[in-house]
UniProtKB/TrEMBL annotation:
Domain Amine oxidase residue range list: 19-478
Protein's recorded name: All-trans-retinol 13,14-reductase
Keyword terms, alphabetized: FAD, Flavoprotein, NAD, NADP, Signal
Database matches in Pfam families: Amino_oxidase
Length: 509
């Protein structure tokens, strides 16, 4: 294109405006670099997106977040970005998560590691030693991840095979013969789509400990993180371009990217490029021939975590009281079993929360129910595509499929909250296809590439690629979730900014 010669060249062009892309953009812009973020959809934020139906606001991915008590890791990261005091937050109850089983028994997780430990010992007085050992292990493992503790010294966990290969299910099972306690300790494993034979204990530990360090909801939705990060970025001179779907790139003779190409013919020139898109999709965009076969084959062969079916119900006014805690409901005794579900008895395990809405007070405006769904269930419509930016139709059969699934979820919900059906005003749902189309990943995976304790380094994705000026960020680099992705953005930026100085700025924020 003729325009390329006179076009602005950015220091950094970032593909994708999910949290990883926005966090990288902010870090780099705050250090004085010129930054452009390209987003294919009309709404920025990836999993931070919200949508509204019938005047109710629904989160697509962020239902609550940890590490937000004063001085904790995410608290400091948000302070560094200058957005903490602009976020509308609601701290969850001291007993913030309830693990509930089909027999009606409930076990609460309490905020703070000491309270968590005490509460569990109240439920299982004969298991005090196992519970204390578990809590000590949580703390010990989390110490092995320097950035999680806002430290830079050493990447000890990468050299520590024992940390990476410790399996979550097996470690918990080794602590006690009490099967119910084992299931309570792993009861929130929907947070990372836990797989009994694969999920490493460090995934369980990092995520669980962050929630114990201050669990909060975002009042009126998690999209405010993206909104505040985008405002901050613009204040530092960065730019965000929507409706820019990147489909390819041009290269110089040294194999460096000179510009990316969008599907509308536009190009964006840059010195360095960061992809916040799933690694396998990144390979497709930037040209399979540009990557070493060994790398390409390894990435394309990696297994993604399962997708989800998300049901949103809105309530008639003043009919259902707001819950300032979450419920992990298991209709089967084995909390790891819901991922290999039988379609006949689905959903066997799911997450329940009521979003915090500023105008509603005592009563809930809506409820979100999140459960596992294999992408194969929606495979017959895999050839369709539908977003607000590119509306498409999936047809009547798909609508019927969703209705039937919604009815199954609500029937299950009746066993938890008898009579809830009478309070429901409307129902909406999102399938693996919705997540695939909006987030731009394979199969609508919720948490990206699955970590595997049996071969931990094979599932590790480096931020640097063999294309000299192409880097990766996002949930596949370190860990998913608000905290994991924020950490991954810093890891990506360490290629360009002195990490000691950068983390010191976070600590001093």
């Amino acid at each position: 294109m003729q325009t390329s010669a006179v076009q602005k060249e950015y220091d950094f062009v970032i593909v994708g405006s999910g949290l990883g892309g926005l966090a990288c953009a902010n870090i780099l812009a705050m250090e004085g670099h010129s930054v452009a973020v390209l987003e294919k959809n009309h709404q920025i934020g990836g999993h931070l997106q919200v949508y509204s139906r019938d005047k109710s606001i629904y989160d697509t991915g962020v239902h609550y977040v940890g590490g937000l008590d004063e001085g904790e890791n995410l608290y400091q990261f948000f302070k560094y970005f200058g957005i903490l005091d602009k976020l509308k937050l609601k701290r969850l109850d001291e007993e913030f998560d309830v693990i509930r089983f089909g027999d009606g028994c409930e076990y609460a997780y309490a905020q703070g590691i000491e309270h968590f430990e005490q509460k569990l010992i109240e439920y299982f007085p004969g298991e005090a030693e196992a519970i204390r050992t578990f809590c000590a292990k949580l703390v010990e493992v989390c110490k092995k991840f320097p950035l999680y503790n806002l430290e830079t010294a050493g990447e000890s966990y990468l050299a520590d095979e024992a940390v990476l290969s410790l399996n979550a299910h097996d470690y918990i099972a080794s602590l006690t013969d009490n099967v119910r306690l084992r299931n309570v300790l792993a009861g929130s494993n929907l947070l990372y789509a836990g797989v009994k034979t694969k999920t490493p204990f460090y995934v369980h530990a990092l995520i669980m400990k962050s929630y114990l360090n201050g669990a909060y909801k975002f009042i009126d939705g998690g999209s405010q993180i993206a909104i505040q990060l985008s405002r901050s970025l613009r204040q530092h001179g960065g730019k965000i371009f929507k409706y820019k779907k990147v489909t390819g790139a041009n290269y110089d003779e040294k194999g460096r990217i000179t510009e990316v190409l969008c599907d509308n013919g536009e190009t964006f020139r840059g010195k360095e490029f960061i992809s916040n898109v799933h690694p396998s999709v990144t390979i497709d965009i930037f040209g399979q021939e540009r990557f070493l076969s060994v790398y390409k084959n390894r990435v394309l062969a990696l297994e993604d975590s399962i997708s989800t079916f998300l049901v949103h119900i809105s309530f008639h006014d003043h009919t259902f009281e707001y819950l300032n805690y979450n419920i992990y409901q298991h209709h089967i005794d084995d909390v790891w079993g819901g991922i290999d579900y039988d379609p006949e008895t689905w959903p066997q395990t799911y997450f329940i929360c009521t979003p915090s809405i500023s105008k509603k007070g005592k009563y809930a405006d809506s409820m979100s129910i999140m459960t596992y769904m294999n992408a194969e269930e929606t495979a017959q419509w895999a050839g369709t595509f539908s977003t607000v930016a590119e509306p498409g139709k999936r047809g009547e059969e798909y609508a019927q499929f969703k209705k039937e699934k919604e009815a199954k979820v609500i029937a299950r919900l009746e066993t938890v909250f008898p009579g809830i059906s009478a309070t429901i005003k409307s129902v909406h749902s999102a399938s693996p296809l919705t997540f695939r189309d909006y987030i731009g990943n394979r199969n609508g995976t919720m948490y990206g590439i699955m970590k595997d304790s049996t071969s931990p380094l094979r599932t590790r994705i480096n931020t640097r690629t063999k294309i000299p000026n192409l880097h990766l960020t996002g949930q596949n680099v370190s860990l998913h979730g608000i905290l994991g992705v924020t950490v991954s953005a810093f890891v990506t930026c360490f290629s360009f900014i002195d990490k000691e100085k950068l983390i010191q700025k976070v600590k001093n924020a």
